[in-house]
Amino acid sequence: MIVPPSPLLSSPRATAFSAPDAAIEASPVAHVRLGRMAYGEAWALQRRIFDRKVAAVRTGEALPDVLLTVEHPPVYTLGRGADPANLLCLPTGAERFEVERGGDVTYHGPGQLVGYPILDLNRFGPARLSGRPDLGWYLRGLEEAIIRLATDLGIEAYRIKGRTGVWTRTRAGGPFAEAKFAAIGVKLSRWVTMHGFALNVEPELADFAAIVPCGISDAGVTSLARELGRSVTLDEAEARLLPHLAEIFGHPIRPAAPQALADAFPAPPAS
């Protein structure tokens, strides 16, 4: 079942994702661009921030919310619910990780914009109005930001019920009429998030042949560049996406240096 973007994209633009009253202070999300980074290194950084923020929820300590954006070398990750058989082979030079996010098998590689929001949902969206965080709101919000990005570029984008992520009726041909161009998988503890989204900007789509993407065998995989018929840079995709994330989450997203991240979330002392 296709779940179209409207009425969320009608005017007024964001009925279900309207920001809370501006009188409620919204602290900025610190955005750190990691560039090209090996998956294991980025995963360790995520876990360090995540563990500190989970501990801070218990103690009431104020720590910044963080968005990491990164491009990985070729890597295949298996979520908690993954069927190992969906990793058909491990190409030479690629890495493999079993991780704590939900979902099945996913590929990350050059030309893909990966985002890791590490947020305390106790301070976002419904929780700011009612005190009740909502994981569904968060997942649909990530989808909505990517749908808006695609719509800005002239790509039809939508949800499919029961299949988290963002889809399109591909214009690029191939064996499937529908194709996915953004995958989403998260972990949650005390309403703090980690892992996030992977947006196919201009990856080598042949690398997805090594898996049954997200365990879905009856649909394809595509990218912004393939659907547009032109090159798209990660910088262009990121610049278009961040304002939509900020609007949906109701918090400004501001650039932060890696050193500021290290200061706020210092590495534990070496044993």
Ends: how far apart?
A: 52 Å
Total strand segments: 13
- What is the general shape? globular
Q: What structural class do the secondary elements suggest? A: alpha/beta
Please give the largest β-sheet.
10 strands, mixed
Number of helices: 6
- Summed over residues and divided by their number, the pLDDT gives a mean of 88
Secondary-structure element sequence?
A: EEHEEEEEHHEEEEEHHEH
Amount of beta strand: 25-35%
Poorly predicted ranges: 3-15, 19-25
The portion of residues assigned to helices is: 25-40%
Roughly how many Å is the radius of gyration?
18 Å
Features:
271 residues; alpha/beta; ten-stranded mixed β-sheet; three-stranded mixed β-sheet; 6 helices; 27% helix; 27% strand; globular; disordered N terminus
Task: Describe this protein's structure.
It is built from six helices and 13 strands. It has 271 residues and is an alpha/beta fold. Strands 1, 2, 3, 7, 8, 9, 10, 11, 12 and 13 form a ten-stranded mixed beta sheet that branches. The chain has a three-stranded mixed beta sheet with strand order 5-4-6, with no helix packed on it. The chain is globular, with a radius of gyration of 18 Å. Helix content is 27%, strand content 27%.
